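Batch 3, record 17
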Amino acid sequence: MTLRHAVLGLLADRTASGYDLMKVFDTSLANVWPATQSQVYGELGKLAGSGLLEVSAEGPRGRKEYTITQQGIDELRSWLIDTEPDRTRRSETLLRVFFLGVLTPVESVTYLSVEAARAADEHTELERLEAQVDWGDDDLSVYGRLALEYGLRLTAMQEEWASWARDQVAGLT
Amino acid sequence: MTLRHAVLGLLADRTASGYDLMKVFDTSLANVWPATQSQVYGELGKLAGSGLLEVSAEGPRGRKEYTITQQGIDELRSWLIDTEPDRTRRSETLLRVFFLGVLTPVESVTYLSVEAARAADEHTELERLEAQVDWGDDDLSVYGRLALEYGLRLTAMQEEWASWARDQVAGLT
DNA sequence: AATTACATGTAATGAGTTACATGATTGT
DNA sequence: ACAATCATGTAACTCATTACATGTAATT
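Prediction for the assembled complex:
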């Protein structure tokens, strides 16, 4: 039930088409709540069908612009205030750490080195993004920056942890 | 395709039944790769059917003990060495941050305070776990500790970030 | 004229959750 | 006798991914 609220949240900020929303899912939300085109178009149809959105304009090439209704805003607020986020996490990267015993020490050290490098790369990429984006003072910019800061802290932590873990494993030999 | 390898990884350490594996999925792996009973039993059946596992003993109450085969070990090693982990992340907690603009500043501050407290609680819980568990020197203990350290660093980071973000939002008024 | 960007949709498959269904063994 | 634990399995449903299918409008 989260994609549903992601769509409502984006349309609470501004009216948009499925095509417009996909650009946001592929950029700002790519590391937070990825979604595919088929998911988004399907969800827009369902939300419009149940009155949380309405088609406020139709443009060239079959374009449909969706606007959130009062019912949609109520649903979004109630989701934010009355429900707890699902905090289930899956990390394939970390799962693999459990099984490093089946590899040789050299192979394990390589695995952790690659993870450290990947975290460092991602961190650099986020710094680049932060410098490059033209941050406005609209809601999505203000709160999007808080989310970006989370990404910066996360990738920094991951790099430090992976380097530490690599040294731990290297020390076992 | 990851649950499959989680099962193989656990059975590479020791022979076990589905029931035994569920205890691990509900404890050590609960925050890394959660799985339900119906998933695990299903996967064991498929893996035995394709020769990566075999039923090495049958016990009371229909208990079946599974042992990994050489083919299973090969598959596990090839997964670890030749394939990249899927790093797709979804965070409902962070998604909500994007939409805090629809709440009042007070409501947003509350949301971030709750997140900070939750991260602090989880951190404390992990510290308790670290002290309590009888860490052996088997592979799963050694590498499980590295994963636990990741959890400690993650929850510490989350608490700091949420407190920082709360202060940022409080400063907007 | 050709390419790129715009724009929406369906179908098949796989992964994960929840609920149901059933029963045997052990310990008190 | 009762309760707790052990033990496996199926069915229905939802969510997410990948691939397919189709066509229009704007730019170079």
